[in-house]
Amino acid sequence: MRADSSNPLPLAQATGRVRFLPLDPGWLFLAASLALIGAVVLIPAQRDVAQARLVRDRALALEQHRLARLDRYEGFLAAVTDKEPGLMRDLLATQLNQMPAEFGLITGPAYTRVPDASVFPALEPPPAVLPTANAQTNPTSMLGRWATNPRARLWLIALGGVGILIGMMPPARPRTEPAID
Fold it and tell me: What does each C-alpha distance from 107 to 75, 94, 111 come to in angstroms?
């Protein structure tokens, strides 16, 4: 029984065994070299993106701190404009050193210290918490250090190019299809 050479399935059915052609080792060089060049391109880009995100997160934290500060100052200004009685009494006592007549003099060891006359420290929000650098901005693997080092990076690109060249070379012996009888 002669099998059709265009369809490998009848050949496998006719002979009872399937014969695979050996894999060309050039594909291994090609795949490894493409992965190496991909790492050399992507690792520094990933580090730059992480660094940009860190700068963005710090700017957002500072912006939130400044917005909270503005809100506190606007609230204080609105209270002064509306002449809230509690605030006016406190401002008279601290800024002009005037106490209403119904309040008596408080003496004792807890009140011997002179109070601060400035209202601004009480208006300040807590300090902003800035994010810090993490593992994404500082590569810890050997490949990460090589891919971000300018001199080693050139060597990795050259080695990747040589590996691609080796992988793209034709095999030394041409492949032959098994003869079908």
Answer: 33, 17, 6
State how far the alpha carbon of 80 is from the alpha carbons of 71, 73, 76, 83, in Å.
14, 11, 6, 5
User: Please, what sign has the CA dihedral across residues 79, 83, 86, 91?
Assistant: positive
CA distance 123 to 72: 6
Find, among 31, 65, 25, the residue nearest to 170 by Cα: 25
Q: How far apart are CA 58 and CA 130, in angstroms?
A: 5
Contact (Cβ atoms closer than 8 angstroms) between residue 125 and residue 69: yes
CA atoms of 56 and 64, how far apart (whole Å)? 12
Q: pLDDT tens digits, the chain, 181 residues: what are they?
A: 444 455 555 555 555 566 666 677 888 999 999 999 999 999 999 989 989 999 999 999 999 999 999 999 999 889 889 988 888 877 777 777 777 666 666 555 555 555 566 777 888 888 888 888 876 667 678 998 999 999 999 999 999 999 999 999 887 776 666 556 5
Question: pTM surpassing 0.90?
Answer: no
Residue 147: CB atoms within 10 A of its CB come to: 23
Residue 152: closest CA among 137, 142, 139? 142
